[in-house]
Design goal:
heterodimer; A: 76% helix; disordered C terminus; B: 430 residues
């Protein structure tokens, strides 16, 4: 019951983020196409679509990667997990997740500092605060940290609780 | 010493199962920490501002989106029909069709994985049905898909153009002859293989009526590379602009001509574009950061010195670089190799007087082949799964093809005209 509900909630949030990311991609395409139209068809070059496109691109990358991480789609080698025993594999995966979590925390710190440094800056064409763009980095990275934290807890639980409930299967 | 540490760490992290982007970043962390230049704000700054925030790289999501729209728009069957009409009557007809379809797709998606999956999902079952060896069928579909990045438009070439600051138009034009030779090699190999095993030809009515029918159905997707290459090369569009025009064109074809993309499945295509884009750009970001770290530690100079101390002859140097990239290709994905090799290779090729466009195309051919052999060979994973063939069998079946393609790589490397003839002909300025 509880698990099913949790799954459903997870799916909904995946779908919402997918929808949002998709909208960003559509907006970016339209902005750049507008620039092409303005320049070549109406002979009236605009400067803001290029900037808008680049800003949306930043958000697409840092929100998109959250989704990629969540769906376990990041390109990686998994050869070793076919060679070593299951238990060792689980342990190694746990270590890898912990290191990634630490890595992301450092990125989060860097992202926040970088954003803080940009608060006074205003973009050239759109005249929005640059922090609006740079906040994509800490925001996306924060979500990644949370995902990784949940994963570490999950993996830790299956790893260390194994002895008590030997046959619960354990979520991967 | 540091160069060695860099390679050992990178391979170590990759083998432990770290995603490529994190492995690159972690190696950068370690080297930067040892050098005393570790600083989170600089890491994120280099990663974002130098790696990701680039207008020319917006072409990457646009080409992914255009390819996604076309694929969802049902071009597979139409392109296969067209390929069947052109080469179906040659011995081993379906194998020939797979190669030509792979080349057609290469002109549309520019991504090897999408190509291999599209070609494989229809043609591997078809070949198996006609008693082709399953491992051969799956291996051939992988090899046919790998031509994608060599034939324009090409995502690796766009990334290379940004890093090496060269003309995308020249790179695209330069890929055409090597891409055609690549297809030819696979077709000849399939012909010989099919003749030995007495595989059938396909019966396609070679009538004028049929020709009109088939081309009418297949012509729209094939016009896309013409629009892209023509647009960039005539100087009308930049690469990014031509990519967005390709998006609009493929949307019109898929939505209003083929009626297969609807408002319902459009969000799915957009979302998967966002994910693929993020996946590539995140790797580019950390590869750029690692490139910055190794450059500030002067590792490229040391590698260059080591290479020059072995030999000063251009063709030997190029062969060594190719060898190095092929070895890296065993473990690392194509895009990462591209970004990591550039800081090392670009000064070297400048010193030996090689054209950066020529090198860019060599690099693209090299990393395309790199996706085809074990232990990693990402394309083998894709098509062996489709063909339900064991990884061992497909690895064995693809080896003769890989050896032939490495022969092509050396031909393209040592005979510059195979690459530079077309760019010189059409764009003498570049």
């Amino acid at each position: 019951m509880n698990m099913a509900e949790e799954k459903k909630g997870e799916k909904l949030s995946v779908r919402i983020l997918d929808l949002f990311n998709g909208l960003l991609v559509a907006a970016m395409s339209l902005a750049i196409f507008l620039q092409v139209l303005a320049r070549y068809v109406f002979d009236y070059p605009l400067s803001w679509p290029e900037e808008l496109g680049r800003f949306l691109f930043a958000w697409i990358v840092f929100l998109g990667i959250v989704q990629v991480l969540r769906l376990d789609e990041m390109p990686a080698l998994d050869l070793i997990y076919r060679w070593i025993p299951d238990k060792a594999g689980q342990f190694l995966k746990f270590i890898v997740s912990v290191v990634i979590l630490g890595f992301l925390v450092i990125m989060l710190k860097g992202g926040f500092e970088l954003m803080a440094r940009q608060t006074a800056q205003i973009s050239v064409a759109l005249e929005v605060p640059m922090a609006v763009v740079y906040s994509a980095i800490p925001f996306g990275t924060l979500l990644m940290c949370l995902l990784m934290l949940f994963k570490v807890i999950d993996q830790g639980k299956t790893l260390f609780a194994k002895k008590k409930t030997a046959r619960d299967g354990g979520r991967p | 010493m540091e160069s060695l540490l860099f390679i050992v760490l990178l391979l170590g992290f990759l083998f432990m199962g770290f995603p490529v982007a994190f492995a690159l970043g972690l190696v950068g962390f370690v080297i930067a920490y040892m050098a005393g230049i570790f600083n989170p704000i600089i890491i994120t700054h280099i990663m974002y501002s130098q790696g990701i925030d680039s207008f020319p790289l917006l072409a990457v999501p646009f080409f992914i989106l255009a390819g996604g729209l076309m694929e969802e728009g049902g071009i597979s069957q139409r392109l296969i029909d067209l390929a069947q009409f052109v080469v179906g009557r040659i011995r081993g007809g379906l194998a020939q069709v797979a190669v030509v379809t792979g080349m057609f797709f290469g002109g549309i998606t520019g991504s090897a994985i999408a190509d291999a999956a599209a070609v494989g999902s229809v043609l591997i079952p078809a070949m198996k049905k006609k008693n082709y060896d399953p491992a051969f069928s799956a291996a051939l579909a992988a090899a046919a898909g790998a031509v994608g990045p060599i034939i324009p438009p090409s995502i690796p070439m766009i990334i290379y153009a940004v890093i090496a600051n060269t003309s995308v138009a020249s790179l695209f034009l330069g890929g055409i002859v090597p891409g055609a030779l690549y297809g030819l090699i696979l077709m000849v190999y399939s012909y010989l293989y099919a003749r030995r095993r007495n595989y059938p030809t396909e019966t396609v009515p070679l009538t004028f009526h049929n020709f009109i029918m088939v081309s009418k159905r297949g012509i729209f997707p094939l016009l896309m590379p013409v629009i892209i290459v023509g647009g960039i090369f005539s100087g009308v569009f930049t690469a990014t602009e031509s990519a967005v025009v390709a998006v609009v064109y493929s949307f019109i074809v898929a939505r209003f001509i083929y009626h297969e993309v609807t408002w319902r499945n459009l969000p799915k295509i957009l979302a998967s574009t966002a994910r693929s884009t993020a996946s590539i750009m995140y790797i580019i970001g950390f590869a750029t950061f690692l490139g910055w770290v190794i450059t500030s530690e002067q590792i490229p100079q040391k590698v260059a010195e080591a290479i020059f101390s072995l030999s000063g002859t251009p063709w030997i140097i190029i062969s060594m670089l190719n060898g190095l990239m092929l070895v890296l290709g065993c473990f690392i994905d194509p895009v990462s190799i591209l970004i990591l090799i550039c800081p090392i290779a670009l000064p070297i090729i400048k010193q030996i007087g090689m054209d950066p466009v020529h090198f860019g195309v060599i690099l693209t051919v090299n990393i395309s082949i790199g996706a085809l052999y074990p232990p990693v060979g990402e394309l083998l994973f894709v098509t062996s799964r489709i063909g339900k063939v064991s990884y061992y069998d497909i690895s064995k079946a693809i080896m003769p093809m890989v050896i032939l393609l490495i022969g092509l790589l050396f031909l393209v490397s040592l005979v510059p005209d195979t690459v530079l003839y077309l760019p010189r002909l059409f764009a003498p300025g570049n």
